[in-house]
Specification:
Layout (H helix, E strand, L loop, with lengths): L19 H4 L7 H12 L2 E5 L5 H12 L5 H5 L7 E2 L6 H7 L2 H11 L3 E9 L15 E3 L4 E7 L10 E3 L29 H11 L4 E2 L6 E6 L4 E3 L11 E8 L3 E3 L28 E2 L2 E2 L2 H6 L18 H7 L1 H6 L3 H12 L5
Antiparallel strand pairs: 1-8, 2-3, 3-10, 4-11, 5-8, 5-10, 6-7, 6-9, 12-13
Helix pairs in contact: 2-6
Length: 349
């Protein structure tokens, strides 16, 4: 696939690099890989036929197995949205859709790293969600190593809340808390604080949304920073069955920017469980593994705060002398003792 094996931007997905032609050649790359890569590069999304020979039966099985799990009356009365998160944990068909090997290989060819599905969402109706970028929810270091795949489990009608998305918006900068003058410690945590910015960006760039009214079996692949959401669901007699799978790529750190204030020592690291391995993905930075101690120290929302209860006269330097493995790891001796050392019976004097 590669015309030039020397990749000067290994931290940027191949399909989003400025050197697109260095990696994809219309004459040498398979047509589907080239077309998907080109669409993601130029528009931030690509539409494909979902590659499962038994898709119709698979879709009907998913719909019938989930239908009774939604509060339809609450939705009709505008009291609730309808979605099920991570049905893959107990539904084999949902998991099969999320781990489709042809899709996984396509994502690897287009992005340049192995993809891991880590979350599924199943919707029987439109979300009517304000347009947003996933980069404030699911991000990575380096950025943009996340994508979503939305699959139509039935024909999608314009009155049933189709997806909306803004072509080319993925090329805009990734804006996080610091850019809008917000800190997570300031209190608010939802994406609502970004919505005025997103509306202003759309207005400024003069971009109009596309609406995804497609037949059953079509799938939309979208880039992490593409603005997308759900249109109004006008006809409540209609359903809009679909499945979303979110994918991370290997060789990154994973975190939630909305809940992070890096300059204040707070990073909401994620440890997403890969559907492929059934194990947490490893947070890495370059060739180094991010230590679990560091993740816990800077991730106060995900881990209970530990009261610093140190024995009288605790000597941090002595703790490092007696525990050379802690010293070699380069972690803070006080935090290590509180989080691990006391429980493990480590000495400091």
């Amino acid at each position: 696939m590669l015309r030039n094996s020397h990749n000067v931007l290994p931290g940027v997905p191949l399909c989003e690099q400025p050197f697109f032609d260095d990696h994809f050649d219309a004459n040498r790359t398979s047509p589907i890989v080239y077309n998907v890569a080109k669409d993601l590069h130029e528009k931030g999304y690509a539409i494909i036929d979902f590659p499962d020979p038994d898709f119709d039966a698979l879709a009907e099985t998913i719909k019938s197995s989930l239908a009774d799990r939604y509060d339809w009356q609450a939705w009709r009365e505008n009291r609730a949205a309808l979605r099920i998160q991570d049905a893959w944990e107990w539904n084999a068909e949902v998991r099969r859709l999320a781990t489709n090997q042809t899709v996984l290989q396509l994502l690897e060819d287009v992005y340049g790293r192995r993809a891991h599905p880590f979350q599924t969402l199943n919707f029987p109706v439109g979300t009517q969600q304000h347009f947003h970028t996933d980069s404030v929810h699911f991000s990575s270091m380096p950025e943009r190593w996340m994508c979503g795949v939305w699959v139509a489990l039935e024909d999608i009608h314009a009155d049933a809340g189709p997806l909306i998305y803004y072509p080319g918006s993925h090329k805009w900068p990734v804006y996080v808390n610091e850019h809008i003058g917000h800190t997570h410690r300031g209190g608010a945590t939802g994406q609502e604080m970004f919505e005025p910015l997103w509306r202003r960006l759309v207005e400024h760039h003069g971009v109009q949304p596309d609406r995804l009214c497609v037949p059953k079996g079509k799938a939309l692949i979208w880039a992490a920073n593409l603005l997308h959401g759900g249109d109004a669901h006008h006809d409540k007699a209609r359903t809009r069955w679909s499945q979303v799978t979110h994918y991370y790529f290997e060789g990154c750190s994973y975190y939630t920017p909305m809940q992070s204030d890096p300059a204040l020592g707070s990073i909401a690291f994620r440890e997403p469980v890969s559907l492929l391995t059934q194990a947490p993905m490893i947070n890495t930075y370059g060739d180094d593994v991010v230590s679990s101690d560091f993740i816990r120290q800077v991730n106060p929302d995900a881990y209970p705060k530990v009261r610093l209860s140190l024995p009288p006269g605790f000597d941090p330097a002595g703790y490092l002398r007696h525990n050379p493995d802690v010293a070699a790891a380069g972690v803070d001796p006080t935090h290590h003792y509180v989080l691990h050392g006391a429980r493990e019976g480590r000495t400091w004097a």
